[in-house]
Structure formats: C-alpha cells, structure tokens
C-alpha cells in the first residue's frame, strides 16, 4: 500500500524542491512499506528523518536569503514536525513503543500535501519574485539583509500568516 502518491498538484516548478519533495514521498512510502510488511521500520524511519532534517534546513536557508522573518509560520511548522518525528523515535528507542511511528506515518501523509501546496508554494513564489537562484544562492533583490536589519521581513508568504 502506498502511503502517499506523487501527483501533479505537488509540482511547484522549482526543480530542486520538486526533487526533494519526491524523495520525501519515496522515503515515507518506504517507511510505510516496512511497517506494512511487519519489518523493522526504524532504518527506513531514520532515513526519512535525516532527509526531512536536510529538506527543512534547505528551505530555512532559502527563507533567510529571501527575507522571511526568522520566526515565521512556515519555519514553525518545520520545527513542529521535526519535534514530533524525533519524539516518535524516542518512544521507539527508549520505550520500545512503535505505535507513534505508525500514527505519524498517516499524519505526515495528510500534512505534507497541504504544506507543500500552501507554504512551499508561497516560498517558491517569493523566490521567483525576488529573483532568488537556489543553485547559486544569489538573490536579485538584497531583501534578506535589509529585512533582517530593519526587523521587518516578509512573514512566511502564506495568506493565513499574521506577519
């Protein structure tokens, strides 16, 4: 059983992010397949967690470079997800309780498409508007430094964000 399918609605037309998102889904599906097969799913979960940490760090770097406020709702979602993922791993390792891992599989599958379609799409839009090239790390507009100095960044780009 596939945990989450890659669909056209998840394509953001930012090649590096689209590839990273496809990898996330592949790793989530590998984790789900291990759970379904009754195998030890911890190696697959470790791979998913390591990828998610690197994935979110990449997006956090991009947000800083295009002028998102340091404490924005996009970053807050990343922190929340990583905290839950790490806590589920702690339960598995310290308490030998694998139930949180099974629950998290479904929760991540529900959360990810919404996050990608809203938060990540807003990040890609902001990157395009500011001329940010993730390959070079250069931004046509020097907003990241100006926003940090002024203390008035762009929030997270989401219409639901109060920044």
The 3D shape can be described as: elongated
Strand runs, count: 2
Structural class designation: mainly alpha
H and E string: HHHHEEH
Mean pLDDT reading: 88
Tell me the number of helical segments per DSSP (H or I, 4 or more residues long): 5
Q: For the terminal residues, how far apart are their CA atoms?
A: 40 Å
Strand arrangement across the biggest beta sheet = 1-2
Q: Any key phrases for this structure?
A:
elongated; two-stranded antiparallel sheet; mainly alpha; single chain; 163 residues; disordered C terminus; 5 helices; 2% strand
Question: What would you say this structure looks like, in words?
Answer:
This protein has a domain at 21-127. The chain contains five helices and two strands, in the order ααααββα. The chain has helices at 15-36, 42-66, 73-94, 99-129, 143-150, and strands at 132-133, 138-139. It has a two-stranded antiparallel ribbon. A hairpin with a 4-residue loop joins strand 1 (132-133) and strand 2. Helix 1 (15-36) runs antiparallel to helix 4 (99-129) and helix 2 packs antiparallel against helix 3. It starts with 14 loop residues before the first helix and ends in a 13-residue tail after the last helix. Mean pLDDT is 88; it is low at 144-154 and 158-163. This is Hemerythrin domain-containing protein. It comes from Pelomonas baiyunensis. Keywords: Iron, Metal-binding, Oxygen transport, Transport.
């Amino acid at each position: 059983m596939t945990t989450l399918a890659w669909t056209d609605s998840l394509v953001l037309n930012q090649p590096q992010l689209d590839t990273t998102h496809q990898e996330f889904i592949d790793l989530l599906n590998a984790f789900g397949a291990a759970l379904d097969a009754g195998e030890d799913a911890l190696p697959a979960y470790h791979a998913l967690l390591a990828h998610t940490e690197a994935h979110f760090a990449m997006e956090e770097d991009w947000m800083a470079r295009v002028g998102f406020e340091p404490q924005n709702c996009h970053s807050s979602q990343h922190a929340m997800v990583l905290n839950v993922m790490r806590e589920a791993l702690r339960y598995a390792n310290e308490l030998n309780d694998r139930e949180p891992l099974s629950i998290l599989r479904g929760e991540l599958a529900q959360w990810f498409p919404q996050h990608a379609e809203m938060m990540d799409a807003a990040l890609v839009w902001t990157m395009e508007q500011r001329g940010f090239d993730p390959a070079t790390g250069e931004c046509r507009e020097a907003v990241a430094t100006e926003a940090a100095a002024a203390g008035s960044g762009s929030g997270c780009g989401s219409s639901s964000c109060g920044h």
